Please model this.
Amino acid sequence: MKDTNKHKGLRNQLVSIIKNKGIEDENVLKAIANVPRHLFMDSGFVDFAYKDKAFPIAAEQTISQPYTVAYQTELLEVKNGDKILEIGTGSGYQTAVLIEMGAKVYTIERQKELFKKTNLFLPKLGYNPKRMIFGDGYKGLPEEAPFEGIIVTAGAPFVPKPLLAQLKVGGRLVIPIGEDIQVMTLFKRTGVKKFEKHELGNFKFVPMLKKKN
Ligand code: SAH
Model:
């Protein structure tokens, strides 16, 4: 499967939609315009790739809605060269958006099947994360810390302490917190022991689970 002008046109329409919903960061919009989302979807859903909707991927997981990806990415305030940790690689779409923005991405996935699939797939499209890890996102990635940004793409029942500890001073953690519905939460590390917490809109994610399988 490949990328065509038709797909590019559909992506530009998608960018208009998420712009109308309030996304302003030009670099985020540019990344959404560039990443061929249809290639990240299972064949049955390809026709819907440029709708602003979430869809199933393997292992009962979902590729997040483009607006949600854009919203979380905007909150991260990604700058070229930033070291970013992503929890929940899934299809690799969010990973690709971050790489488009010049981030050095470390990404963790707990589902073996998805990990294997995305590990092979992303480099084929020319997206090379610094590391893809099969592991438990609750622990973060202490050996690569600190990070300028950490993004959690599954619904967390609480904020895992190691993620806060692995932020650089000045860094940002974007995490949806809650069981059934999640509140998008932004933590800014303003000092070694100081964090600012901002609670933003409600979202619905697949749950962040313990243990690998
Ligand atoms: N960023 C992904 C979204 C995938 S959905 C994308 O753009 O497609 C959330 C993902 O988080 C799922 O793949 C799920 O398996 C993974 N996940 C859930 N709990 C996790 C944990 N504790 N550690 C790492 N990944 C986890």
